[in-house]
Amino acid sequence: MPSRKFADGEVVMGRWPGSVLYYEVQVTSYDDVAHLYTVKYKDGTELALKESDIRSQSSFKHRKSQSSSSSPSRRSSSRSRSRSRSPGRPAKGRRRSASQSREHKDDKKKTIQETSLVLAVLVLLKASENNTKRYNGEPESTEKNDTSCIILEQKLKPDLEIKRVLEQYSLRSRKDDKKTEEIFSEKKTFVAVKPIEKVPSKTKELEFGGRIGTFMLIFLLPATVFYLLLMCKQDDPSLLNFPPLPALESLWEWRVFGIFLLWFLLQAVFHLLPIGKVVEGLPLSNGRKLQYRINGFYAFILTAAAIGVLLYFKFELHYLYDHFMQFAVSAAAFSLALSIYLYVRSLKAPEEELAPGGNSGYFIYDFFTGHELNPRIGSFDLKYFCELRPGLIGWVVINLAMLLAEMKIHNLSMPSLSMILVNSFQLLYVVDALWNEEAILTTMDITHDGFGFMLAFGDLVWVPFVYSLQAFYLVGHPTTITWPVAAAITVLNCVGYYVFRSANSQKNNFRRNPADPKLANLKFIPTATGKGLLVTGWWGFVRHPNYLGDIIMALAWSLPCGFNHILPYFYVIYFICLLVHREARDEHHCKQKYGLAWERYCQRVPYRIFPYIY
């Protein structure tokens, strides 16, 4: 095994991926398996570099001025003088030999090649908005709102930029006999750019309370779901009135488990249908992009048709209400079995396919957060499927079952106004998520979190059985509201939805095409990754306007249940805690990813979720 050349904490010169320029970096760690150094640039950007892309500072030195005068005219007027300072230089006025003349021409040719190379480097750097200042951590004095300014800078200052790069960095070799070979090898490297493959290292910073916290959550999450469902069945669902525990044998029924499996398989069949477009996700650590079929909305239409057929043939859908606890237990058992399968298969997964946040080496922590990032059976992506299909569409079906159960239990010819509002608001939310299914590919759940117990239980149990809590509550605790109150709640929900959808659309459109003329009025802070951080529009109002819209909608879903008990407000309370915690995770990851640019963004947009409050 080769020994490492550079020590942790050592300041060296690291080559920026895809260019021939080196910048001052600090070595933070070394991966003995992949033989990669993790280095940190001055702007906070961290990258994994090969040893061949790192050099000691002593091997770099500024080129000395060739004239005592810094005037360009002085230097241009001395073109007739030889650039070489070798002892064999002929005396002034003496005629050059033929070989010396050829050397002079070769020297000129190499200078032209060097200048062309620097021009190409500058074009690449400008086009990707990764200028030298930003890589060195120097703040920019202006924000950008149009990519045309890059072309404008190239037209106005080409000579100045070339001179600056030539004076600061010597692209020539110190050995004359290898000069031509190294110049052409550098040009070849520049043309055939390959991204550096980053192999996920061990997860050092543990979230959710580490090993102890995740161990407790494995038991606390199911207990919370069962407690909430038992409370809703109570005549007096107050917090101090703890519900009696049911007999264990009453919590399980094989028929219910079979129906749940049938539901899961039906959604899997709908997902595998060759309908809908196929898109690529974000690049993985090895540069590969996975493909995803976008057909969630079609699956929802087919599910609605199947439910309609069942109702036409007099199928009692309120069976869900009568066996609601048993369905929750079946879903929890299935999610636990799925989590065990996911962890076992992840032990054989290649290193580059492991999740950045679930590779700690601790069994409990990796089991909870998810060890493998994108577990697939062939082309069937398990995590992507569970994110939007069985649980999210099942949430709508459960709400419909509660509506029908309310009508049957209370002998109503039509559902109550409160139940209609809850069903309508949440139906809009689910349809919106399925219609904009492609947007989920950029979320933390897909790009960062592995697929383990946390997401499996959350997608298959928490979403359908906790998010439907308001509808379940209204069946046993009917609440009457007036039309003016209903209108006010509807307006509140519409405001929340508008903030949520417009903020997400603004972000997704900007990510897809920052040069779109429709987005010309948006200003952003460029980052070393080539992406921009919006500082106008919704994202200049607070850092997470989509979270703000989500919370407003959550409140609107709870208000139709009245104020007799706090139980139906569990969702909005939990959701605020969830989004505040997620915002803290986002903050940590963005600070590591964007470095100085993120600090500037936080100064420009100080409020995280709630304006003037938080």
Layout of secondary structure:
Blueprint: E1 11-15, E2 22-31, E3 36-41, E4 46-49, E5 54-55, H1 72-77, H2 98-127, H3 132-135, H4 148-156, H5 158-168, H6 179-191, H7 210-232, H8 254-272, E6 277-280, E7 291-294, H9 296-312, H10 319-322, H11 324-346, H12 363-369, E8 376-377, E9 380-381, H13 382-388, H14 390-409, H15 417-435, H16 444-447, H17 453-466, H18 469-476, H19 483-512, E10 524-526, E11 532-534, H20 545-558, H21 570-594, H22 596-604
Antiparallel strand pairs: 1-2, 1-5, 2-3, 3-4, 6-7, 8-9, 10-11
Task: Walk me through the structure.
The protein is α+β, with helices and mostly antiparallel strands. It has 3 domains: 10-57, Roll (SH3 type barrels); 207-479, no CATH class; 481-613, no CATH class. The chain has 22 helices and 11 strands. It has helices spanning 72-77, 98-127, 132-135, 148-156, 158-168, 179-191, 210-232, 254-272, 296-312, 319-322, 324-346, 363-369, 382-388, 390-409, 417-435, 444-447, 453-466, 469-476, 483-512, 545-558, 570-594, 596-604, and strands at 11-15, 22-31, 36-41, 46-49, 54-55, 277-280, 291-294, 376-377, 380-381, 524-526, 532-534. The strands form 4 sheets. The chain has a 5-stranded antiparallel beta sheet, with no helix packed on it. Strand 10 and strand 11 (532-534) form a beta hairpin. Helix 15 packs antiparallel against helix 18 (469-476). The radius of gyration is 31 Å and the shape is globular.
Fraction of helical residues: 40-55%
Outline the low-pLDDT stretches.
62-105, 114-198
**Major pleated sheet:** 5 strands, antiparallel
Shape: globular
* Number of helical stretches of at least 4 residues: 22
Average pLDDT confidence is: 78
The count of β-strands is: 11
Number of domains: 3
Coarse structural class: alpha+beta
Percentage of residues in strands: 5-15%
